[in-house]
Amino acid sequence: MATYLGASRGAHYPFWALRRNHLWEVDGADELELTSGGRRPTLAALDAADPLAGLPKEDFNLVSRDPEIAARIAGSLLLRFFDPLPVGLLDALGLTDLLAGRIDTSLRPRVGETFSNRDTVADAYGGNRVLGITPLADGILTVYSDEKGPYADTRIDGTNWIAYTGDGLSGDQQIRNGNRSMARYQAEQRALRYWHKPYGGQWHFETWAVIVECHRRWGRGEDGKMRREYVWVLVPVPSPLRETWPQEVIDALNEDDGSVHDDSLDVSPKEAGETPVSDCERYRRLAAAARRTGSGRTQRSRRVQVDRYFRSPAAREAVILRSGGRCENSSCAGHPTELTDAGAPILEVDHINDLGRGGEDVPETMIALCPNCHALKTRGSNRQGLRMSLLTIARARHQAFAEQE
Ligand SMILES: [Zn+2]
Question: Do 394 and 366 touch, CB atoms closer than 8 A?
């Protein structure tokens, strides 16, 4: 212990603070010369006395009697303060045998544990009872995802990756509090715990996960107003130990340079109170945002899915804007006049060529259709011919819209 603590000046402060909290005993503590208004001994006094110190007897007995408890404590401390583990640390601490194959399995909670509410989680494992991003008592960061309200986090289509909305209920989110913790875990490539509560269900510790990307996008705050929010891309991993992570995850971590992918720059929602622009200008910006791809990125399928997930709202919004609230099929037999509860026209935004067949997420190859025309395009016997003509329509309307002043 001395070699590790001795490395930095002031390392005796925590050594002494533990004693004040009755987690640590120091032989002959009463005879040491104190400083700082009696709060702690001088380093010189500690060096001179070189006292024996350690866990209180009861704790010591418990830990020496029960290797499971010892492993749980050591595992938590190592993951919290020494992750990733420096080579040789376990040997130096004499923990190799105790922790062999056990660092992660000794940790509690275990993946899959279920609780009826946040209070029972906190009663069992400590930590804050309300915050969405907060550590448990063992100090390891934990994120909670409740499948209701504005914080419904989603799996990114076609993957098991998770788009997790950051911390901050209303107003533009900032990198502080929970988001600061997320940024730190992202930079340090550390695993956190992901808890999920399905709609009407219970909280359960679903998986360990690492953060491979940070995005910024427009979303609706709890006050109903549009604001910029952070979205963290979480990838499930089998355990907090890096050697258990699939190559795909390691690759994703290596490709992440920590920069924020800002999907909120090109265009802002009409209601966000920014300088109003014409519909055509707005369309051009949305189309540009949709086209913008993560430049210089290896086009691995997962990455393409992530890009698509964040870009497609801009493409959809552009198509809706271009449609003017009407089915874009020029041979439409009659668009329904009825509106949705929200007062929106009944329209389905469709990729004219299916995504799986190379369709792009850009408005010139997408179209807004009424449910009838959508069904004809999907299931009608003339669907091949219809697709061709819809493609021509979409391109022409895109052109006209993009060039108008
Ligand atoms: Zn139609």
Answer: yes
